[in-house]
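Annex B, item 7. Sequence and structure tokens for protein A, then protein B.
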Amino acid sequence: MTLVVNKIESELIEILHLEGFRFEIEKFDSGASMIDIETNNRFFCVQLTENYAGISEITEESPEFSSIPDEHFDNAKELKTRISEILNVDWK
């Protein structure tokens, strides 16, 4: 299922602002974007593309970014559920 990247991105950014998370966004010419999020002394990278989304946790054991995410999502509902769990927020 194709993700609606712009909608997901804008909803996530709104939640991050409202909840006071530290984050940084990087957009690419391809239309993809990455959102780096810091929460509870943990650091996550959310990758959004036209066809899928991914989440990776950056740790001391895996400090380098990889274009292959730790977790891969093909639909918005699964992505929102997982981000809600990570951030401890309600996103429906």
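Protein B:
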Amino acid sequence: MLDAGGKTCKDVRDLLNNFGLPVPRDAQTTVVAQDSHWTVGAPNANPVACARPRRA
């Protein structure tokens, strides 16, 4: 889902908003490293979230 980049889907926005991270409707997902690191935020602004999978 995140590896596609581009517009952040509603499910991801809702999840981040539930954790107190204000993600706007026009948020974009940027792939930093496929399958392992993404950022989410408004276009042309600093990211509001950084996502990485949990390591066991």
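Comment on protein B: The chain has one domain: 2-51.
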